[in-house]
Amino acid sequence: MAAAEPKPPAGVAAARRLARGCWSAFWDYETPKVIVVKNRRLGVVYRSVQLLILLYFVWYVFIVQKSYQDSETGPESSVITKVKGITLSEHKVWDVEEYVKPPEGGSVFSIITRIEATPFQSLGTCAESMRVNNATCDSDEDCVAGQLDMLGNGLRTGRCVPYYHGSSKTCEVTGWCPVEDGASVSQFLGKMAPNFTILIKNSIHYPKFQFSKGNIEHRKDGYLKHCTFHEVSDLYCPIFKLGYIVEQAGENFTELAHTGGVIGVIINWDCDLDLSASKCNPKYSFRRLDPKHIPASSGYNFRFAKYYKINGSTTRTLIKAYGIRIDVIVHGQAGKFSLIPTIINLATALTSIGVGSFLCDWILLTFMNKNKVYSHKKFDKPSQQDCTLTDARGLAQL
């Protein structure tokens, strides 16, 4: 007689039954219970929330933000500039080659409007500037030979010598003499500077959409030789007067010419490429970029020198230049219809409408007078007898 096959342990059998139950439940379809609540106030809240969400997505997301488009920010850009004009100072006539730095015509350049020139500087010994820390002295004992101040004008010799004017004395230094504040001459170049013209040639390219455009109109009748920029009639004539740029930035030209400053010319290319290329136009704005209300760092100036020979000796003219620096800044964004962002935002909109149901359910089950009745109708709870019977069957199977 064959031996009886051993039964699996009770725990293994229970695990198998649980696995079969889970597998069977995996193929079940579940649907939420729907309860119709005849309450006008709750219905008004529900429809109002739905309407607000719908308006948000239709007006803001799709119309304002154009979220149905694929977008690209930061176009590839090139900027070429050219300044024209002459001006006068107290001693000479200045042309473009002298007052524009650097002369290459890039996106950042400076127009000199005032200078403080120190001519005939040569290598030798002279009194240090009184603006240098610990430069004043009463005797040679106050000056240390060989001392070098990083903010000074040279190496100290150890002698205390009379200053350039007045009765004060400062320590003597070896360097380019005389020092700047001892013999500088100021000249103002800004008298005719507001009439300087600045050509700003800009081309942009959006590589994702293979779209390119420039800010100059393609004409062969010498249009650029007699036009100046106007936002309506001459949008594609990017020739600006310096006075116009400063005025649009909200600054006083005379004050700015004396102290110097930085003006930003911002070119914005926001392009909807679902429309024709003619609808993609540059928008110009102007503002001052340097902090003029902070005395310690207001204004703009820089130094350079011009060298020459006198009787075989190297001599230079040191120039401290104050000017208006122009920074041309280009930015923008292009967009074009794409199916993927459209589907994603439509799905987000349809999902968000469900927020109204969640809010009204919370009000219904929390603040309504018959909230316990609604809770009982919405959620099915097994009776105590059903629970006892289920527990008994489970124990019996074990």
Automatic annotation (TrEMBL):
It is found in: Cell membrane; Membrane. Keywords: Cell membrane, Disulfide bond, Glycoprotein, Ion channel, Ion transport, Ligand-gated ion channel, Membrane, Receptor, Transmembrane, Transmembrane helix, Transport. The keyword Transmembrane applies. This is P2X purinoceptor. InterPro entries: P2X2_purnocptor, P2X_extracellular_dom_sf, P2X_purnocptor, P2X_receptor, P2X_RECEPTOR_CS. Receptor for ATP that acts as a ligand-gated ion channel. ATP-gated nonselective transmembrane cation channel permeable to potassium, sodium and calcium. Activation by extracellular ATP induces a variety of cellular responses, such as excitatory postsynaptic responses in sensory neurons, neuromuscular junctions (NMJ) formation, hearing, perception of taste and peristalsis. In the inner ear, regulates sound transduction and auditory neurotransmission, outer hair cell electromotility, inner ear gap junctions, and K(+) recycling. Mediates synaptic transmission between neurons and from neurons to smooth muscle. PANTHER family: P2X PURINOCEPTOR, P2X PURINOCEPTOR 2. NCBIfam families: P2X. It is a multi-pass membrane protein. Homotrimer and heterotrimer; functional P2XRs are organized as homomeric and heteromeric trimers. Homotrimer. Forms heterotrimer with P2RX1. Forms heterotrimer with P2RX6. Forms heterotrimer with P2RX3. Belongs to the P2X receptor family. The lineage of its organism: Eukaryota, Metazoa, Chordata, Craniata, Vertebrata.
